[in-house]
Amino acid sequence: MSTDSIERHRKWTSRLKLPYPLVSDPESRAGEALGIVRRIGLGTWRVELFRRTTLLVDIEGRIAAWWGKVSIRGHAAEVLRTARSARLAT
Questions:
Q1: How many C-beta atoms surround the C-beta of residue 75 within 10 A?
Q2: Whether pTM exceeds 0.85
Q3: Chain segment 14-31, per-residue pLDDT in tens
Q4: CA distances from 14 to 8, 35, 42 (A)
Q5: Distances (CA, A) of 17 to 9, 61, 67, 71, 80
Q6: CA separation for the pair 90, 19 (Å, rounded)
Q7: DSSP tag of 67
Q8: In whole angstroms, how far apart are CA 66 and each of 17, 46, 54?
Q9: In this model, does residue 81 exceed pLDDT 90?
Q10: Could you report the per-residue pLDDT of 43-54, keeping only the tens digit for each?
């Protein structure tokens, strides 16, 4: 999920050959609801970014697991283990 447009997400999905869709949230409504928007002050400017977060969503659309502090090394394997243990992946 990011504030990028749907078209930009389509390009990323195609370029990276992702087997799942990316979520566009240009007004940060979902990000705000999930508590993953981070605001940084840079002088007189204020920048809003999404925190690097992983949500594992089950087939019914419920959040099955949440990682708020994502360390790149080993993270994908951890998510896959969790999905398999919850029977969300094969």
A1: 14
A2: no
A3: 999 999 888 899 999 999
A4: 10, 28, 34
A5: 12, 23, 23, 22, 18
A6: 14
A7: E
A8: 24, 27, 6
A9: yes
A10: 899 988 888 899
